[in-house]
Write a structure and sequence with these properties.
By secondary structure, the protein is of the alpha+beta class. It has helices at 14-26, 67-73, 109-121, 158-161, 166-185, 187-197, 238-258; strands at residues 29-35, 42-48, 50-51, 57-62, 76-81, 94-103, 134-147, 153-157, 206-210, 214-219, 222-227. Strands 1, 2, 3, 4, 5, 6, 7 and 8 form an eight-stranded antiparallel beta sheet that branches. Strands 9-10-11 form a three-stranded antiparallel beta sheet, sandwiched between helices. The longest helix is centred in the last third of the chain and has 21 residues, at 238-258. The chain is globular. Residues 1-5 have low confidence and may be disordered.
Amino acid sequence: MDDRKKDVIRETDAEAIRLAKTLLRSARFGALAVLEPRTGSPLVSRVGVATDIDGAPLILVSMLSAHTPALLADPRCSLLLGEPGKGDPLAHPRLTLICGASRLERGSGIHARAERRYLNRNPKAGLYAGLGDFSIFRLEPQRASLNGGFGKAYLLDRSDLTSSGPIVEELADSEQSAIEHMNAEHLDAVAVYAHQFARASGEGWTIAGLDADGMDLVSGDNVCRVFFPQPLVAAGELRPALVEMVRSGRTMMKTNDRT
């Protein structure tokens, strides 16, 4: 009899990385685990979530909440993402990130970018984001575990989840103007991205974020993730990629109409 323990961790492949990035980029909220300063006991609470342009999670939290002083005392934390659907909740994919939290200083460039991206994703937070007791924390992913459903466990590194290189800052400089242009002038194209590439239903889709890997689309409380055919290497590749995706998406629509 073979007494060796079976390794339940699968080799991380492109499909697993894509699923992990989808869970990360499309999350509206998550369960944040911190350590209580006085007792060292674990404390878990729900937080609203967005992502920075490189993929690092962003949270907007109040000093009145227990988890904020905990993060300031000890930046080690964990974030669980993934929404259960019908049936067994353990059959649905979820992503657990091990992170180090850093509070972003108001008035800094990175704070302005993080606030913009957070409010693009969570516009109702604009009612309180500017209050003095609220702060934005950036959660730096160190590693992660992905459970894609029963028998689908993976371990991921930071490089599997986030983008790096000059493209990050290049896109950060042009992202908001591109979003505003697309949402003001090309909502028909955004609908094509949502319906043909994310297989999303419904109307009213707008772009909430652009990054090197793809785009985040929102319609009310619904979020979907659309990936570019290939990751962008330079910001100048964004417009051609969007144009080509509209063209190919409309071709798919015509093909589907004929069948």
